[in-house]
Design brief:
By secondary structure, the protein is an alpha+beta fold. The protein is built from 4 helices and 9 strands; from the N terminus they run E-H-E-H-E-E-E-E-E-H-E-E-H. The protein has helices spanning 40-45, 60-67, 115-128, 156-184; strands spanning 33-38, 46-56, 71-72, 77-81, 84-88, 91-92, 109-112, 131-140, 143-153.
Amino acid sequence: MSSNSSSNSSSGSSSGSSNGSGNRSGNGSSSTVRPLASNRRARHDYHVLDKLEAGLALLGTEVKSIRDGKIQLKDSFIEFRGGEAFLVGAHVSPYSHGNRENHDPERPRKLLLKRREIERLTASVQAKGFTVVPLEVYLKGNRIKVEVGLVRGKQQFDKRRAERERELDREAEAAVGRRRREISG
């Protein structure tokens, strides 16, 4: 069985929204989006500057395993080689009903991006010292997509400030909830 015939190929990719709205529906298509895995550590350790949606070239057993949610993005990153982008360090567990032809869990997987997008990301990484990491893997329609982020590392004080802001937001939300209960009850 050829890996080309069983790969989950996508006909290019569309740019994701960089405003953080989370709308990945593209050009008005009504395909449903189902999250499969997210890289919460990346959002904690980095400032996300830009986001892109990319397809993944996968083997058949990888598709089945990822659809079951058996993918981990921790410590994964995007590597650029020969004008192509690869997802490195992502662990896709072997498919439970697979046979001896099951995939290698740690193999690099090719990202399906447009040449211009790859060139722009490569230039940002080389010139400005940014990093490209996967932020989320999701199912869009019948295709497995990965949200890729152009990121810059956070300093320790940035992490503390973000944690303090989240805590203040939680406290304010709790106070508003208590006030509503007092008024209605």
